[in-house]
Every structure is written in structure tokens, then in C-alpha cells.
Amino acid sequence: MRQYFTYDVVERTLKQCEHTGINTVQSRGDYIMFPKYTNEIQLNIDSVRRILKNLKQ
Questions:
Q1: Which domain holds residue 38?
Q2: Considering only CA atoms, which of 40, 10, 12 is closest in space to residue 28?
Q3: What's the domain count of the chain?
Q4: Most exposed of 11, 24, 48, 54 (fewest Cβ within 10 Å)?
Q5: SS3 for 48?
Q6: Residue 2 domain flag
Q7: The predicted structure's pLDDT at residue 20
Q8: Contact (Cβ atoms closer than 8 angstroms) between residue 7 and residue 34
């Protein structure tokens, strides 16, 4: 299973879940996977905030 569930496969699966409306995950708290994934989410949130701020001006 470790050979199949690489970072890329897990990331793709989480994105598919988000796309279908699943917004909760229960996991073992992978020390490699979640910092990368949550950093990416934060970057996306920051990008959206910048866009919205520019639209308000």
C-alpha cells in the first residue's frame, strides 16, 4: 500500500474529495503529507483574498 499511496496519489484523492463536497478527513496525521497539502490550501486561500481585495478597490 505504501508503494501505491504516494504523495501524488493521496493529493489527487483529497482534491477529488473536495471537488465532490467532502470536506472532512480522518487520518493518522502524516507528518509529510499534511504540511504540504495544508500549505497548498493556505496559498490558494491567500490568492483568493488578494483577488477579492483587488476587486474591492
A1: 7-56
A2: 10
A3: 1
A4: 24
A5: helix
A6: no
A7: 93
A8: no
